[in-house]
Amino acid sequence: MRRNFSISSFIILALCILFFILLIRAVNAPEPAAAMSAFFIGPWNGVWFSGNTLDAVTLLLTAALGAVAAFQGGCFNLGGEGQIYIGGLAAALALLNLPSVAGMSLWAAAFIAITAGGIMGFISGFLKKAAGANEIITSFLLSGALAPVADYLLAGPLRDPSGNLLATKALPRLLRILPPSNLSVSFVISLLLVATGHFFINTTVLGYRLKIAGSNPAFAHYAGIEASHYWMPSMALSGALSGLAGFFAVAGTYGRCHMGFSGGLGWNAIAVALVARNRPLLLIPAALVYAALEQGSQSAMLAIGLRFETSAFIQAAALLFAAIQGR
Q: Class assignment of domain 2-325?
């Protein structure tokens, strides 16, 4: 099965390359060779671009692992975008108000972001178990209701009056790995989280019970495993990881919390999780390919003026190919 997965992955990669070449020809790009070079080489062209591409992988890995946590428990967390946003805002509030002593404010901010996202996920899981509410709807509505509150705070009370952005003041940042890029120690933490998730799901009794309860509730019930007992923990863990991704964004990537910083990360994370077929270790290549596509599209836009709609279409087509492969 692993060999088949590898072969089909190469086929999908070849299809993506062919599709991009055909698309460049179709839009009559003035310099097709430059466009292809910017798209494929641009994300890795030097420390700055390589570091920023890996930083995008960090955020995708963390948020996608949150989506996998929900999927493994038999739930679908559609509120990841809001959980990232609120988690990042909560972390920013902590960093703005807590004294920065030996990095303790960063640890506290991470804990607060995890808690904020975890509470949001837990609420949806609780409503599913206690009232039979669909967690897809409740997680989406809860996130949608809180996002405007975050927008108001960032545009008003929390806005840095000395700048032009709708953002907070500069925040204490995580240790950078490849300066001057945005890559920080969050990259290492995200890899450790993925490894931990793989170990938990595949080698522990609790992880096995979680996987069975989420993938086949009827069989789980026959084996004495009540699937509903895992809804709240899996949704809470999913929200917590999304909140952590928000912390990585504000304290690692941007160094401040600005309006709309999540930028579709929650939705991209769901796509990466589906492409990886909810396997933690497969999140790494899936996130790497998606981040390279995203950064390559932006590089092509800057290099030859490739339209934003074209670059978005490239990413969508690549994900479609990958989703077909995952069937």
A: mainly alpha
